[in-house]
User: What shape does this take?
Amino acid sequence: QESIYNLLPRLEEKPVKPPRYISTFRPSVKREAQENKAQCKTMGPAKVAVPSPKNFLQKHSKEPKLPARQKEQDKKLPSLSVPRRTDRPVMGIQSKKNFINANAVAAITRLPKKPQPIYVDRRQGDKYLLETSGLVPKYIKKKDFGRTPKYVTKRNEEERRAQEEYEASILETLKKRAMKRLSDEERTSLLQGLRRNWKEVYHEFQRLPVQIDTIPKKLNKEKLETQMKQLEHDIEVIEKHKVIYIADE
Assistant: This one.
């Protein structure tokens, strides 16, 4: 039956949890773990010797130290070409050369020193070296002066070779496109063929009806007349000119 209590939401009953599973081998596993456990395995020994207060950490004691310097062995000094400070000159030996007279003779007989060539830009201007000014013709004294450089000769040779190849290709192209002359036999056979074609077109033109009243008949008549005129023009041109050239396409 319908009741107001059935319309109210009912609270859901909480499910009852089953008891937690406990293995039957739990005591034996605990016993084996206790038997196989090593003493001081992770935390170290229970008692450690305390360092002496005399061995305290000193400053710069952990920095790397260089090895002890060894004493250098006595090295032999190289023989010197100049006299030492302790050496004494040999006394009693004098040179017989008269240096004063020798110097005077050398100064008298010596050639005068040539002045360095210079140039002046104006009358009361500054002086400049002549060699670096570009006014001295020192380049004409070279061995290869006036000769064509090698790179210019090589470039001219390459240009000449390229021009010759280009001209040869042009001549080859012109030879391929050269006009061919018709022989007398070909000219005669061509005339005969044109006349034969003209006769065929003329016979077909004669077979046309007398009364041409439709468009197709008119078009056919105009076509035959055009062909006859073209054949007559070709025959006249070939008969007029005995020498005929044909261009190769």
Remarks:
- The chain has a mean pLDDT of 83.
- The chain is about 40% helix and 5% strand.
- Residues 27 and 33 are 10 Å apart (CA to CA).
